[in-house]
Predict the 3D structure of the following.
Amino acid sequence: MTSEFSFHLLGRDRAARTGEIRMPRGTIRTPAFMPVGTAATVKGMYPEQVRQLGADVVLGNTYHLMLRPGAERVARLGGLHRFMNWPHPILTDSGGFQVMSLANLRKLTEEGVTFRSHIDGSKHVLSPERSVEIQNLLGSDIVMQLDECVSLPCEDKVAEKAMRLSLRWAERCKTAFGTQPGRALFGIVQGGIVPRLRVESARELAAMDLKGYAIGGLAVGEPQADMLATIEVVEPHLPQEKPRYLMGVGTPDDIVQAVCRGVDMFDCVMPTRAGRHGQIFTRFGRMNLKNARHAEDPRPIDPESSCPAANGYSRAYLHHLVKAEEMLGKMLLTCVNLAYYQELMAGLRAAIAEGRLADFVVQTREGWERGDPA
């Protein structure tokens, strides 16, 4: 164990990197996928299962936790790690995205965002300082700056205004965070899909000398090509010795393509949400267990998977659980998806370390395109 936060690059394959983020609560192997634990739980999973599948870190949601059960209550109960029985690293988002997308009657000013809870209508103020305070109360290992998120597409002037406000908020978050050995504050690059704005944001944030940097404001419905082009614009302007985090992404193909462009960290609700709705991700591509063709199929999802849910239950049984809307079906398919995402990340890390990433990408995509073997 270490008492400090540090990032170590262990290998490269063109723009792709593999490395380790080391901190007191453990090491995050990169490229890393962070399962989303919105309300202090990865839905449908025991914490030890999430760990056994290969996750080094999970994500907690500042907006949801500040509303229920409350950051101060979590702090009184020993912090988020103890509260959710996850002794390993936790990254918390700032709450900005959820305020913009979920909260009612919100008002944005230079000071912060005033909004009413989508749960009970109660009034709250989220400023850069309050966002950092909440994340400190939760005790997260990686703290995200508060930023303004805009919907895409949007006018350039709207993206520019939000980007500049986010930069000013980043400075305030840095001041509020101060110096905390073993913990880290990450900045968030904004600017829509306007290259000059993204470059300016990345350069200004890099000058703040933060511990890591995220690319935000993507995965909001824009074409994949726009997302990848934005990564390519931003990447040269981020410090090589700091971790890069693409927020809210995404599909397995999104992740593979972003890793090839130098991204180290990812999070997305897709594998857990899809599992709850009968959709799974596998090395054969995406499958829908609701489809009638699975009703009498005795085969497991994937006999070569290390996941008991993927190798130990018949497709017919999983189809039955989905159609009957049984809780166990949601749990098992969530497990299948999280297992595949972690297997994909492990494969990417090994391929980068061994200098065979291009071959790995070709083989992986060929598997998706061939589809489920009859």
Remarks:
- The domain at 6-267 is CATH 3.20.20.105 (TIM Barrel).
- The mean pLDDT is 96.
